[in-house]
Amino acid sequence: MSAPARPPAAPDASILSATSTGNSSRSTLPFPGRSRSLFPRADFGERPAHGALANQQTVDGFRGRGLVNSFLDGDKSRGTLTSPEFEVDHGYLSFLIGGGGHVGETCMNLLVDGRVVRTATGDNTERLKWKSWDVRELRGKKATLEIVDRHSSGWGHINVDHILLADAPARPASEPALWADFGPDFYAAVSWSDVPKRDSRRLWIGWMSNWTYANDVPTSPWRSGMSLPRGLGLRNSADGIRLVQKPARELKKLRGRHDAFKGGTFEEANAWLKARAIQGDTLEFVLEFDASTEGNQGVKLFKGVGEETIVGVDRNRGWVYVDRTRSGNVTFHPRFSGAHTATLAAPHNRLKLHIFVDACAIEVFVNDGERVLTDLAFPSGNSRAMELFGTEKGARISALDVWSLKSSWNKFAQHLETTVPTE
């Protein structure tokens, strides 16, 4: 049975209206506080939209009679709407957003000193939904908001309304479904039912594939496999209680040689990797970035001639990603190639990536499991190099620990030989 619906609320809100005329949502705002007109000119049309535009599906979820809607000439229209500068005077910025889910292309950005510090997209639906940013670390700073439409194909538009600052995040009337894994290759997870009570953990494992291309992956004699077993937990966050996942602790038994880099520049770290000849397709490593690091940083895996799979962090856009566009064999299905992203709650804080690399699989655990991405990749046999990268001059790595991994299959085969009766 589902929980009863609750009314949306944002206590003591300072309202930043996404529209600015008498048709704006300000006329029927139910929340106390002072209202400020945010966008003096609607660049996506002469006036705020009143809902769906010509040839658009039904648009709902906005408040009052107006909203920003970039579907002016259909998905082909593009543009940017920028607010005047305002002061961040509360701890949370909440808003209603719908339309396309194209990261960096159909989005609303929060800029401080001209730099994107928060970003959000729609979810490929015309229904506007509440999203919130924790901006407590930005309190007292001057900021601007930017509503962006840079996409000209499917879901190439953005809808925004009812932007407000408050001391708590706005909450929806019903709880949305949340992703357990932001990669494409974690499906149909099942948990163990016979974990001893003294252990008390909840463990699960997922099918590492995707029905979109599961029957076409270029492997033989088997197709697909399973993810690593993961321990589940709950953690309080700015958005409420959230699921976290960590690699099962028993996986530490597979660790072989350990190498540790104690911190330095990316150039120093890459020289360290080369000196120790660290590469391969069965690795575990923990990579930590300084809180002050900006720009785009990460690691290139399965690197060879014309091939690489990138695990990266875009601090300015606020997400972590796996890009397998040039990961090796990507032609066996038209929807295999591409990048997959997960937003970060605090992208400018110290960041930790715990990554497992297997022959054709990558599992990324971000900040002790607050985000997880699972991706398949099919590199050439000689694409096994590893390289760190950072776009900002002087960017530094806090620490890097690397382990080679022993095969679990050999141990499993030995276990079967000793436990399975013979006829």
List keywords for this structure.
Jelly Rolls; 2 domains; 423 residues; disordered N terminus; seven-stranded antiparallel β-sheet; six-stranded mixed β-sheet; 2 helices; 29 strands; single chain; mainly beta
Structure, described:
It is a single chain. This protein is mainly beta and 423 residues long. It has 2 domains: 14-166, Jelly Rolls (Sandwich); 187-410, Sandwich (Jelly Rolls). It is built from 2 helices and 29 strands. It has helices at residues 266-275, 408-419, and strands spanning 14-17, 35-37, 68-69, 72-75, 79-82, 86-87, 92-99, 106-112, 115-121, 125-134, 142-149, 158-166, 187-191, 203-208, 225-226, 230-237, 240-247, 255-261, 264-265, 283-289, 296-304, 307-314, 319-326, 339-343, 351-358, 361-366, 371-376, 385-390, 396-405. Strands 18, 19, 20, 25, 26, 27 and 29 form a 7-stranded antiparallel β-sheet that branches. Strand 16 and strand 17 (240-247) form a beta hairpin. The protein is globular, with a radius of gyration of 24 Å. The model is unreliable at 1-11 and 19-43 (pLDDT under 50).
